[in-house]
Design brief:
The protein is of the alpha/beta class. It has 2 domains: about 5-145 and about 290-340, Rossmann fold, CATH 3.40.50.450; about 145-285 and about 350-375, 3-Layer(aba) Sandwich (Rossmann fold). It is about 35% helix and about 15% strand. The strands form 4 sheets. The chain has a 7-stranded mixed β-sheet with strand order 3-2-1-4-5-12-15, sandwiched between helices. Helix 1 (about 15-30) links the parallel strand 1 (about 5-10) and strand 2. Helix 1 (about 15-30) crosses helix 10 (about 295-310) and helix 4 packs across helix 5 (about 105-120). It starts with a strand and ends with a helix. The model has no long low-confidence stretch (mean pLDDT about 95).
Length: about 400
């Protein structure tokens, strides 16, 4: 097939970003594309012409992509100006690149759309591949990267819950990633199986955070259970729309805040006099191969393959979507979505997924999310429950 292919990664890595790369490489090989370039270091690498021909790599190296988190070709958050988009066109033509794939989140899809416009009339086809653990890409049902992050936070919460139940003397606050969207935080609810299971409270950035209500919720549950597990988003805001923790460092492009979990654990100690601690899995949640979702890996490969097919069929200015089909069994289809509908559009948790008080999620969300993590989490046992049951039966 005439014309080379280039794939570019953008934004934060995930547990399955390399699985999409695997899908791209394998589909391109099957179609006979001569050179399958990877931009080594994101969008900036395109301008620097820092490319690797992955088609020449040994098969065993390509297979390792399926068990490697992060991105094997590197990523970036490099800001681009209009003249740089136009400069990319010259680079693409110089290397006889006819097919360009951008794999990333909202920002990367914005780049994808702008490169597509710059390439108009140049016989260059630009297609987006969705990726974000935050699950905040609009239009689609979910994004590759999110199911694995959801499985991770649910598993961690279940394990912490077993720990706290074993020695119920403190409150544990777990902080999940997702500054503006609470999808990952909400996924911790999949840890529950029986009444009283952790997480006992869930707070999302979609609702304003009220410290007095939080303290009242914690106090009530602590008196009932002895140990409480709370899962919170890193992006919690007060009624003014400001982060509940003050900024600790500012640059021209970003503001860095302290840990929400540490702030809330300290608040519990100071205001309630209850022992508390904070946990922040952080990057562990997007780089865990041990807890990679099989559904996530398969779908990541699929969207990579579909992007190659779309580009080589002459489609451009589109992103491969994921849409859940109707029916009892979980299945998806992969429609092509105009990139303008996705560029920098952020998808937050809908109201029907959040309870009225704003300290938990609804069963509707649990039913939506559960198929993405390969079913139920591993079973755990507590003989304390058995002992309490026997005691009640003797009374």
């Amino acid at each position: 097939m005439k014309g080379n292919l280039l794939v570019v990664h953008g934004g934060g890595p995930t547990a399955v970003l390399n699985a999409s790369l695997y899908g791209v490489v394998r589909q391109a090989q099957e179609l006979g594309i001569e050179k399958i370039y990877g931009a080594i270091g994101g969008s900036e690498a395109v301008l620097k012409e820092n490319f690797l021909d992955m088609g020449k790599l040994p098969d065993e190296k390509i297979e390792l992509l399926l068990t490697t988190p992060g991105t094997a070709i590197g990523s970036s958050r490099f800001p681009l100006e209009q003249e740089q988009y136009e400069a990319m066109v010259s680079v693409l033509k110089k290397h006889h690149i006819k097919y360009v794939l951008f794999n990333g989140g909202n920002g990367s899809m914005d780049t994808c759309g702008k490169v597509s416009r710059a390439c108009h009339g140049e016989d260059i086809f630009v297609v987006g591949i969705p990726k974000t653990m935050d699950n905040d890409i609009s239009i689609i049902d979910h994004a590759p990267g999110f199911p694995s992050a959801a499985k991770y936070i649910a598993t961690v919460t279940k394990e912490v819950g077993a720990d706290v139940k074993s020695l119920p003397i403190h409150v544990c606050v777990i902080e999940a990633m997702g500054r503006n969207a609470g999808w990952i935080t909400a996924s911790s609810a999949l840890a529950r199986k029986n009444p009283g299971d952790a997480p006992h409270l869930i707070y999302l950035p979609e609702r304003n955070f009220n410290e007095e209500e939080f303290l009242a919720d914690v106090k009530k549950l602590y008196e009932e259970l002895g140990g409480v597990v709370v899962v919170v988003s890193e992006g919690l805001r007060n009624e003014k729309g400001e982060s509940i923790v003050p900024p600790i460092f500012k640059t021209d492009r970003a503001v860095y805040y302290g840990d929400v979990s540490a702030y809330l654990a300290e608040l519990v100690i100071k205001k309630l006099g209850i022992k508390a601690r904070s946990e922040k899995p952080g990057l562990c949640g997007r780089a865990s191969m041990a807890l990679q979702s099989e559904v996530d890996r398969k779908e990541a490969i699929l969207v990579g393959r579909e992007a190659v097919k779309a580009a080589t069929e002459g489609k451009t200015g589109v992103m491969v979507g994921i849409r859940r089909t109707s029916g009892e069994a979980y299945q998806i289809e992969t429609p092509l979505i105009p990139i303008e509908e996705v560029m920098l559009h952020e998808r937050i948790m809908p109201e029907e997924y959040i309870n009225e008080r704003g300290n938990d999620i609804t069963e509707h969300f649990v039913q939506w999310c559960r198929p993405l993590i390969d079913g139920d989490l591993p079973e755990m046992v507590s003989f304390k429950d058995e002992a309490e049951h026997q005691l009640r039966s003797r009374i």
